[in-house]
Amino acid sequence: KAGVTQTPRYLIKTRGQQVTLSCSPISGHRSVSWYQQTPGQGLQFLFEYFSETQRNKGNFPGRFSGRQFSNSRSEMNVSTLELGDSALYLCASSPGGRMNTEAFFGQGTRLTVV
Amino acid sequence: GQNIDQPTEMTATEGAIVQINCTYQTSGFNGLFWYQQHAGEAPTFLSYNVLDGLEEKGRFSSFLSRSKGYSYLLLKELQMKDSASYLCAVAIYSGGYQKVTFGTGTKLQVIP
User: Fold this and answer.
1) Contact B43 A43 (CB under 8 A)
2) What is the DSSP pairing of strand B106-111 with strand A19-24?
3) What is the Cα–Cα distance from A108 to A36, expressed in whole angstroms?
4) Would the CB atoms of B42 and A108 count as touching at under 8 Å?
5) What chain A residue is nearest to B46 in terms of C-alpha separation?
């Protein structure tokens, strides 16, 4: 059974640009959550998608957005990049019923904004 | 919102026992997770406690006290490969769904 796949693994962007990250969950999983991880802040929740609908959202500005497709793959977009957006972006996949249990994380996308 | 506290760093000796504490303040509490994350890798699930008490799984055990807002992860017979960050995460039930919030993690260094 394939794990959670995130692409690309590494990305360097310039301030002001926009970026799109992709996450393919484990087959059969319908919930995809996105997190930003930085050394000082730890894992910060961005949003969760279930069946193509955003059902939970963290406290990030509107520059951070996402979507989920009918095959459960999800994309996250960050517009007008800032230096502070440099981080490891992780997505987590779970079956997605009313009661989530463990989440399976991808290897992450390391975004560097210069 | 949720407030989750865990020590930033800990050091322990190979073969010893270490306890990593996590305290939290939240409403709608619906369970607590522990994840392990090696440097440069994805977090991996260790345990989930929703009821008070101790859950043992091999060398790792996790304890929860809901009334005290307190959990710990106990690692026995430490091995060098246990050097990693340990993330405490609190689940809350809100609006019909479960939402998980992570602490900042405890970086454990195991020394010979």
Assistant:
1) yes
2) unpaired
3) 9
4) yes
5) A102
User: CB distance A43–B97 less than 8 Å?
Assistant: no
Q: Cα separation of B32 and B47, whole Å? A: 8
B29 backbone dihedrals φ, ψ, rounded to 5°? -55, 135
What would the pLDDT profile of B13-68 be if each residue is shown by its tens digit?
A: 999 999 999 999 988 898 999 999 999 889 999 999 999 999 999 999 999 999 99
Report the DSSP beta bridge partners of residue A65: A77
Closest to A91 (Cα-Cα) out of A31, A51, A13, A2: A31
Please check whether residue A82 is in contact with residue A94, taking contact to mean a CB–CB distance below 8 angstroms.
no
With beta carbons less than 8 A apart as the criterion, state whether A13 and A112 touch. Answer: yes
| Interface list for chain B against chain A, based on CB atoms closer than 8 Å | 30, 33, 41-45, 48, 87, 89, 91, 95-105
Distance CA B8, CA A31 (A): 30
